[in-house]
Amino acid sequence: GRPRPRPPPATGADEHNRHIRYVCMCKCVCTALWVALLAAPVAAANDWRRWVSQAADSLSHASRAELSLPRVDGGERLSPAELEAPLLGARLSWLAYAEKRREVEAGLALLGSGMELVRFSPQRDSRGAQWLVARDAESGTLWVAFRGTASLADVVHDLMAAPEQTGAGDAFHSGFLRAARAAAEELREVVEAELRVRPCERLALCGHSLGGALAMTLLGAGLLPCASGDAGAEDAPAEVLAFTYGSPAAFHGQLRGAAMRRGGGAGAGAPRPP
After folding, report:
1. How many contiguous H segments (helices) and E segments (strands) does the chain have?
2. ∠ at Cα 108 (193, 46), nearest 5°?
3. pTM for the complete prediction?
4. Which of 196, 213, 255, 257 could form a disulfide with 250 if both were Cys (CB 3.0 to 4.6 A apart)?
5. Is pLDDT of 186 > 70?
6. SS3 of residue 264 by DSSP
7. How many CB atoms lie within 10 A of CB 155?
8. Are 52 and 115 in contact (CB under 8 A)?
9. What's the Rg (C-alpha) of the chain?
10. In degrees, to the nearest 5, what angle opens at C-alpha 81 toward C-alphas 77 and 86?
């Protein structure tokens, strides 16, 4: 029951030593944070370059491999040549997450000499989406790739799941529909201008997660006239493809009069290929 003796009062030397230790600790923590902040972009860039380099290697490997895989719809088996488009769509969907144009250009250069960036459009506000348009000169394909969820605005689009009907009577995920509409005007101008100057055999849309849903919404809602046949027949591509990866359902039920071919991993509710 005896009270504990109080420690002797700190002297000036003790206070000085405690202050020195505190200052040293703060400097160590600040130095570690600065090193982490400076090293993170370098590490991310190295990882990005390594990933894209592996993507290029896998594409060339797929073209040489003697293999075939069953189709999703149970039809004929896919040939190595048919695998290249879905693989390239996956790489472009990943490149759509880049933050700057020069990063996209560097990634396209690693994917092949025939890849050329037409337009990179970063997300500018809470209504739109991030996307890129690239041309594959070797295959005669114009690619449109959408970024997946990477911002708070994208999360809001994901959560707006209530159905919203279009003039044609089709019901879409309202968040996807509004984001696709916000991006459609600029995207339509870019694609149609490119097709007028350099017509291509096929148009391919792709995206991961939210990006895939936006690609399906853009096609299903007829927001890209050159893909739905509403544009001039001279400029319209002969074939339109959609490749989605881990994409949620973009619309409710079946679309009326939608002519799309599902290229791979399309979200639930996508129309079956002809």
Report:
1. 7, 9
2. 145
3. 0.69
4. 213
5. yes
6. strand
7. 13
8. no
9. 26
10. 85
